[in-house]
Amino acid sequence: MAILTMIGQLLLALTILVGLHEFGHFIFARIFGIRVNKFYIFFDFLFPLPNVLNFALWKKKSGDTEYGLGWFPLGGYVDIAGMVDETKDASQLAAVPEPYEFRSKPAWQRLFVMLGGIIVNIILGILIFWGVKFYWGEEYYSKAEVNKLGYYAHPLAQEIGLKTGDKIIKVNGEDYESSGDVRAALMQENTNFTIERNGEVKEIPVPNDLIDKVASKVPFMEPILPFKVGEIAKGMPAEAAGLKAGDKIVKIDSTPIVCFQDFQAAIKKQAGKKVELTVERGNQTVKINPTVTEEGTIGFTSEMTLTSSKRTLSFGESFITGAKDALSVIPNQIQGFGRIFKGHISAGNAVSGPVGLAQMYGKSWDWERFWGLTGLLSMGLAFMNALPIPALDGGHVLVLLYEMITRRKPSEKFMERTQQVGTFILLTLMVLVLFNDTFKALFK
Question: How high is the pLDDT of residue 439?
Fold first, then answer.
């Protein structure tokens, strides 16, 4: 069921993103009087072979356009009359151009048609970020709240000189608002943390290649999270041993437990074994003896007692904040690509495929997380499509800009060849990403 939930969320998100991206091309084509033969979400053929396994799960003809849902859930497309794309080659465009065809229109109109998907994805991303900010507001751990107890340093953080209990007072010499700002700083180059440890102020430089390990899901650091026992799972060791909601676990065998991270680390070491938990229950101290599962759990949810801050935003404030956050995705993507080329982060850790994306959506359906990730993906899709790679929108835009500058229109044969090269590049990247994605899911 959990896997189906992850897949369902990803498919819904892709349907929304791809459908509206293709609608961007569609609407600009219609504005300029260009005929659209097909508008499909997903492919109705075995991509990239337009004449193999041609069938649709659903289709309907309206006017000149056939609308449909394809069987191959990789993306989607619009078949624009008179344009070389993944559905046709130059031989199909040998006749004299018709007035309603893409190739008969001025270069500036064709440019807007090609930019239509990117424009719509950017607008969609801003609208989603706006809606998330307005409906759910902003919840975060403030700097003041986190620094009451400080940060929990996992082994990776300890490698660069951080210790559990350190209080981060500045990031790159400047004040910050929340724990999220601290994590975001890892995306930047030459980051430096100013910490307070036992009343002494120290500077901790962050190596530029640390982001590669963090991106591979290795725990780094997080606010120390004091906790108490929440809901007890039915039929699990915690219930059998008599653990109760509201209990505070202070010791596992002889290991003191101060925070949730201590509990996680200690309980996993005892997988499959019987342990003694020292529990504070009201004014009493109780000892119980559950047997830890092979997965390193005993079966309860935790309630964090670190107080989070919640900020409600007005309609106007949420738009400004949402638009700012949405648009910041693009420079962050550019910065991320730059760090790949500099060797700070490997491409395998920087890029996620369908498996990784499904895992990001999670095993339970959370609408705030769903829309937040979908907004992020919309901005990411806009950026990726803008890359000057043949077969992507950015490749077509590059050729059109060349035509507008030189006033020389490339031949249909040239466009066919660039489309083929671009498709080969994309397929190769897709195979590599899918292989990397699957490898990480199975072996990490």
Answer: 56
Other beta carbons within 10 angstroms of residue 51's beta carbon come to 8
Closest listed residue to residue 136, CA positions, set 358, 371, 374: 371
H helix count then E strand count, the chain:
14, 17
Residues listed for the chain: 444
| Beta-bridge partner residues of 49 | 46
> Which domains are assigned to the chain?
2-133+372-443 (no CATH), 143-223 (2.30.42.10), 227-304 (2.30.42.10)
Specify the amino acid at residue 149.
Answer: L
- Closest by alpha carbon to 66, among 35, 89, 97? 35
pLDDT digits (tens, 9 = 90+) for 18-57: 999 999 999 999 999 999 999 999 899 887 778 889 999 9
Regarding beta strands 248-252 and 255-256, do their DSSP bridges make them parallel or antiparallel, or are they unpaired?
Answer: antiparallel
Q: Strands 200-205 and 192-197: what pairing? A: antiparallel
- 317-362 pLDDT per residue, tens: 999 999 999 999 999 888 888 888 888 887 777 767 777 788 888 8
166 near 240, Cβ under 8 Å? no
